[in-house]
Design a protein that fits this description.
By secondary structure, the protein is α+β, with helices and mostly antiparallel strands. It has 15 helices and 19 strands. β14 and β15 form a beta hairpin.
């Protein structure tokens, strides 16, 4: 971006390249530990000797009963409005039955809570479930990942009081297809009259940078806002800030514009907002600063902003072979997408399961006329059989049972691996990351396919209210939530083509070390075919973007093959 100039008590500062100083613990070692608010959830877990939570089955059963009971009360009737739905979530949060920290400390309970909620809320549509995962995974989870001790205490206080938050990442021109690009800016302004040495100015620089489709954006009091951090006129990348969206009178804060995105086909008890920022002044403490910090140093009569990374950042990345990927702040923000993808996959899987279950109960009891055997006169008493026994529907139910069970097993093993990673406080490796992506794509796409096919076979029943079919657009939400499925598939294809190119550069064109040794023959063949199409397009003068656009069908086909290979490998490693 061009230099950013702001008036302050120093000489007008046109910020320049940020000074990188050696990483240090804390904000120069000064961290306000605060005191933990009193939250009294039902005690159902104990600490193991390693610090990991060990939960006995009877404890889990007690928690499960309490959670189901509370869900039944909270969801006893449909929410009358977005405000009413938000109030219900606030009540649920304050119980402490599911703590925000359970995402990290007891992830098994975190995922089960989502599944039980999907079951309990099926009749009312997806609005409350989406609101719930935004609160616990995206909002609270990002603070758990990036927040300092002081900010974690603030999060605990929010649980005690039931205050709600939202997660503002996507923008009008930087949405689910953007690869986590953001245009919203947060510029550090040096100011010697400020005890912290300066403050941040949060801005929406153009209409395309408005935060878009922000779930719970109208009812949340605070938001985790992802913005491009600018220090001395230089960007240091997207960072997360904890931003008050409403003042003490519950009105939009100064410089904050909240706009309703309008009515939807389903889930209208969930508010979705467009958010615009106009020179919103934020304290230095707004930056989620567990892994980084910004401050001011004096150079003569001027102040200069300094951006630092905390100790350990350079070696925290997931290991791939002998190399370690250095985590950026955006990588850490993206960590919430992994847990979110599993939650989304499970939500789609549960919705599909309940829709088939409810529909089969109806078709089991729906008689269909069939001709009486050996009688053709009109006086013969017609025979009947259940609609479920009509060949095409019977076949679909059998196919659903088989495919639902297999996908369910895959989700469980991937969830178990992700829980182990969270409990051990290690970053998911590339194999697990890709399995999580595959789980999201497979569960959602299969749910869309099977529920659509079911709709075609049950006639007018699918048009009736309160059957569940009126909420199938929830699956559309799942398709682009937590990483658009098409983007995830394209990344899988791209990674395989790049790996093949890398092998060729090393001379591995045959024998050990080829793609055939690490993937199925079908996947290796599809990769080679896609790579050949890309090379042919390049030879014809097409740009890389044009080449991939032209070969997109082959890329998606490769991703589908790769996903099936991933599922097979995780369910039967020996095979």
């Amino acid at each position: 971006p061009p230099p950013v100039e702001h008036p302050n008590s120093f000489a007008p500062t046109t910020c320049f390249v940020p000074i990188r100083v050696p990483a240090m613990p804390g904000a120069y070692g000064v961290v306000d530990q605060g005191s933990r608010p009193s939250v009294s959830p039902i005690a159902v877990s104990e600490k193991g000797t390693t610090g990991d939570i060990i939960e006995a089955e009877n404890d889990r059963a007690s928690w499960r009963d309490a959670w189901r009971s509370k869900l039944s009360a909270v969801l006893a009737t449909p929410a009358a409005s977005c405000d009413n739905s938000a109030s219900r979530l606030s009540v649920l949060v304050k119980t402490g039955l599911l703590r925000f920290e359970d995402l990290m400390e007891n992830p098994g309970r975190f995922f089960e809570a989502h599944r039980l909620l999907a079951q309990a809320g099926f009749q009312h549509g997806p609005g409350f479930s989406i609101r719930f995962t935004v609160q616990y995974n995206l909002f609270a989870g990002t603070i758990l990942e990036l927040g300092s001790a002081r900010q974690l205490n603030q999060l605990r206080e929010m649980q005690r009081t039931g205050r709600l938050g939202c997660f503002a990442l996507t923008e009008r021109l930087a949405g689910v297809n953007s690869g986590l690009v953001v245009h919203t800016t947060a510029c550090w302004v040096c100011d010697d009259k400020n005890k912290a040495g300066g403050y941040f100015l949060l801005n929406t620089p153009h209409p395309g940078a408005k935060k878009n489709w922000i779930s719970q954006g109208l009812t949340a009091s605070l938001g985790v806002v992802v913005a491009d951090l600018i220090v001395n006129g230089e960007t240091v990348g997207p960072h997360a800030f904890l931003v008050p969206l409403r003042d003490k009178n519950n009105q939009p804060g100064k410089g904050v514009t909240l706009t309703d995105m309008g009515a939807k086909t389903t889930g209208n008890d969930l508010d979705n907002a467009s958010i615009e920022f106009n020179s919103v002044r934020m304290d230095r403490t707004a930056l989620l600063d567990k892994h980084c910090d910004v401050f001011t140093v004096r150079e003569g009569k001027q102040g200069k902003g300094v951006y630092v990374e905390r100790g350990g950042d350079a070696s925290e990345g997931a290991t791939s072979g002998t190399k370690k990927h250095r985590l950026t702040n955006m990588d850490r923000i993206g960590q919430r997408l992994f847990t979110g993808r599993i939650a989304v996959a499970q939500g789609a899987h549960e919705f599909r399961s309940l829709l088939f279950q409810r529909t089969k109960e109806a078709t089991d009891n729906k008689p269909c006329w069939v001709p009486s055997a050996g009688k053709s006169d009109s006086t013969a008493t017609p025979a009947t059989r259940a609609l479920s026994d009509v060949p095409q529907l019977k076949s679909l139910y059998l196919e659903e049972t088989r495919r639902h069970e297999r996908t369910g097993r895959f989700l469980r093993v991937v969830e178990s691996a992700l829980c182990a990673s969270l409990l051990s406080k290690t970053r998911p490796d590339s194999v697990l990351v890709e399995a999580v992506a595959a789980a999201k794509v497979r569960a959602v796409d299969e749910a869309i396919e099977m529920t659509h096919r079911l709709r075609q076979e049950v006639g007018a029943y699918a048009l009736m209210a309160k059957t569940g079919f009126e909420h199938t657009d929830f699956l559309q939400c799942c398709k682009f939530a937590e990483g658009d499925s098409r983007v995830l598939m394209m990344k899988m294809a791209r990674d395989r083509v790049w790996r093949l190119a890398k092998m060729k550069r090393k001379g591995n064109t045959g024998g050990r070390g080829t793609l055939v040794d690490t993937t199925s023959k079908r996947e290796a063949s599809a990769t080679a075919s896609l790579a050949a199409q890309i090379q042919d397009a390049a030879a014809r003068g097409l740009s890389p973007t044009e080449a991939w656009d032209e070969a997109s069908e082959a890329a998606y086909l490769l991703a589908e093959i790769a996903i099936e290979d991933i599922v097979t490998t995780w369910l039967d490693p020996v095979a």
